[in-house]
Write a structure and sequence with these properties.
By secondary structure, the protein is an alpha/beta fold. Helices cover 32% and strands 17% of the residues. The chain contains 14 helices and 17 strands. The protein has an 8-stranded mixed β-sheet, sandwiched between helices. A 4-stranded antiparallel β-sheet has the order 14-15-16-17, covered by helices on one side. It has a 3-stranded mixed β-sheet with strand order 10-3-13. The chain is globular. The termini are far apart.
């Protein structure tokens, strides 16, 4: 039977960990709107950001491919021309397409204008900005090079734009809208005052693997508990906006015709194991939410523990919406598991960080490749040096590295062989980041990034903007 669900609303946050929602088991973070949404559909309990940093993860989730195969092995590299994306697939299926929020797939400078046409990869309506994290100065481009600014908290402003998009639809055609919110990505303090006041940092239960006193270049001048409190406050603020969006969809009579997804591009270490931010192989960095409501093909209150990676997003959504999936997809369509048995089986996902750059570089984290399953996480440093082995079921906080335990030597050998077989299949020679960039022809682009990503003029502008936002927040608290 043909489904009446023809639309897609794809909502994703930035740097939101899978374990930090009420419906994912964190009772200290009340997210009633997202929790209610989860009760109406399906929760994936083992959704994973295979390439846990912004640009690579976004490239993967929108193309159904591994980030290095579409030109984005590291942040700020542009998505390769001509690749199939969620936007091109939806447009070919007859959808009105739109993209709102952070894009981060068009190279440098980070405030560049992406003109209408092929570099928007199928998204016609455009209220997006390549990359900014000034959450009280919403910035976006439409169809001309004039940068526009909005008022108030960026996710609230972007939700307003999404609701306007939905209101202005031609109801004779389906739609596909991607809404990309920036929080809870740092700077953590950029959250509405009412949400900041609602969380007491001293009463937060930190994860057992948090090393609050550790010092590295990213922790200087930053309070662990204050950052956790502000991170949680940002999640509460997003929950409010998600509720607004769902109520708007219902009021417009679109809820029963629309598949809705809520997810994130990657997580945040937040002092677990002494690390901050992302690009790490630990659960805090790679675990993300994936919650889906499809009124026709997904039962309410469903839970699926089958591991799902970002390359699986596009083929799975194509399966649910009866869209032909691109032959280029490297992920698999998991929609059959949603519609039938809600499989409890396991599978191994390839995970990687191809470049020791950005926060990974600042913290001296090496490039790595690994395998993730519900049971095990196995990771090697470039160029193939075993690094980590965790039993994810017996040791959910990954406190006991089993790599050198003689009882697990056969497991390590088997995982090493399976990992390198996967890499050989993908043509990944486990090169250093610089060697990989040169091999794939990205070296000149990377040099351009070094020249243009953080120019003095850009940094000066950002500092002035952040100071203005800080003063506005201080005023709202008085």
């Amino acid at each position: 039977m043909a489904s009446k669900v023809k639309n897609l609303l794809f909502v994703f946050a930035d740097q939101l960990r899978g374990m930090d929602l009420g419906c994912m088991g964190n009772a200290e973070i009340p997210t009633p709107e997202i929790d209610r949404f989860a009760q109406q559909g399906l929760r994936m309990t083992h959704a994973i950001a295979n390439f846990p940093v912004c640009g690579p993860s976004r490239a993967s989730m929108l193309t159904g491919r591994e980030s290095s195969s579409v030109g984005v092995p590291a942040n700020d590299l542009p998505l390769a021309d001509g690749v199939e994306t969620l936007g091109t697939v939806a447009k070919r299926a007859g959808c009105q397409t739109g993209y709102i929020g952070k894009w981060h797939l068009d190279g440098v400078p980070r405030d560049k204008f992406t003109p209408p046409g092929s570099r928007r990869f199928g998204f016609d309506y455009w209220a997006a900005f390549n990359c900014s994290h000034d959450y009280f100065r919403p910035q976006y481009y439409r169809d001309d090079p004039k940068m526009r600014t909005g008022e108030g908290y960026e996710p609230a402003f972007q939700t307003d734009l999404a609701l306007e998009f939905l209101q202005d639809l031609d109801r004779s055609q389906p739609f596909c809208l991607a809404l990309s919110w920036g929080p809870p990505h740092d700077p953590y303090w950029m959250v509405p005052a009412e949400h900041r006041r609602s969380i007491d940092g001293e009463s937060i239960t930190l994860r057992p693997n948090v090393q609050a006193e550790v010092e590295n270049p990213l922790t200087r001048g930053v309070s662990c508990r204050e950052a956790h409190a502000n991170y949680r406050a940002a999640i509460l603020a997003l929950d409010d906006q998600f509720g607004r969006l769902m109520r708007g969809l219902e009021a417009l009579g679109l809820a029963e015709e629309t598949c809705v997804v809520f997810t994130s591009d990657h997580g945040d270490m937040l002092w677990s194991h002494g690390w901050l931010k992302k690009q790490a192989p630990f659960l805090e960095s790679i675990s993300i939410p994936f919650i889906l409501r499809h009124p026709d093909r997904v039962r309410a209150e469903s839970v699926c523990s089958l591991p799902m990676g970002t390359p699986d997003f596009l083929p799975t959504l194509c399966g649910l919406l009866d869209w032909p999936a691109p032959s280029s997809c490297e992920g698999i369509d998991l929609s059959g598991h949603f519609q039938q048995s809600y499989s409890d089986s396991d599978r191994e996902l390839l995970i990687a960080n191809h470049m020791s750059s950005d926060e990974a570089g600042e913290q001296n984290m090496p490039e790595w490749r690994g395998l993730y399953s519900r049971r095990l996480t196995y990771v090697e440093q470039a160029p193939g040096i075993p690094w980590l082995l965790f039993d994810n079921q017996e040791d959910p906080f990954q406190l006991n590295n089993l790599l050198d335990d003689p009882m697990h030597s056969e497991t390590v050998a088997a995982l090493h062989e399976r990992l390198h077989q996967r890499l050989r299949t993908r043509g990944d020679r486990f090169l250093s980041g610089i060697e990989l960039l040169k091999e794939q022809g990205h070296w000149s682009s990377w040099c351009e990034i070094d020249r243009n990503r953080y120019t003095p003029a850009y940094l000066k502008k950002m500092q002035a903007s952040f100071s203005k936002s800080a003063n506005a927040l201080k005023g709202s608290e008085n």
